[in-house]
Amino acid sequence: MIRWGIFATNTDGVMLKLNYTLILILLPVLFLNAQTETFRTIVDGTAEITLDRQQETVIVMGINSSVIINIGPEARFLRGIEIEITAPQNWLQYRGSLVMSMYNNINPQSASGIADITGSRIAFEALPSRLRNIYHVPIRTQHGLRTTTTVTMLSSVILPSTFPVMFRLMQVSKGLPDEFEYITFNFTVRPILSDEGAVRLAPRYPPQLRNRPFTVLINDNVISNISEELMLREGEHHLVILSEDYRNESRRFFVERGRVAELIIDLQDPTPVIVFEGPQNTRVFLDNVLISNIHEPIPVEAGIHEVQYQIGDYTIIRSINIQRGKTYRVSLAVDLTVKEED
Known about the structure:
3% of the residues lie in helices and 53% in strands. It has three domains: 38-193; 196-266, Immunoglobulin-like; 273-331, no CATH class. Strand 1 (2-9) and strand 2 form a beta hairpin. The chain is mainly beta. The strands form seven sheets. Strands 3-5-11-7-8 form a five-stranded mixed β-barrel.
């Protein structure tokens, strides 16, 4: 609370002090009311934001008209939206006659034709006397957008939760000729994509080992909840699977801008496997036990194992140090060498 005095002189020449009281608690309420407006406008159409810049929405709007802009759940891939206003040639002679304004938290959120709208004003400025005006509207705090010689960036960030928003043209000059009322503008809205995409992890378990614990690392960062979509920069990323119950895995994958990719993780049984290959009529022994079908992978325990190949009277024996989570391919190659001598 602030008190102040104003000195005045009465008819007898006596100076009087008048005391006034200002209650500051009212100021925020007054300020809030100044931002909320109720106005009548002509709603010329509704524009829907999509991630595809090729699918532009173009609406013809006139003087004292508005467009409602909707945004969908794909807003997480957007930095902002781009609004382009294209004017006819005769617009240049009416410099300073129009202002553009934008509102969020509008009510009603859908309307057409003449409508009474209540909303919070977030932008207000004279429409430049150019045939093409572009506005960038940020919808996230870290947006990286800026004003340039051809683009005007709105200083306010419009959060996706406050959509739909309204773009409005309003006449501010009086005494204009009748032809001014018939000027129309092409309104176009486009997405401004971030450099991000999303990944949805989809683990697939071996039948005999279901729901065992494992750790996922992406770019050396541990993912605490693999059931949630992960927002990542577009480009190449590195995935690592670590587990005591499944095979460890390391691979690379790519993320596309504005896309959600399903990344399938095939969890493998960590039991080591040996795959044998050899010519026909080859007898193969593993730890002195004859392998009945060398075309089938053989699961083994980790450790030292002996492999023996027999072809007729020819025998070759090798020892293999088998490690957990590995697959070993053992083959016997028979080659023919020709040497020319003088």
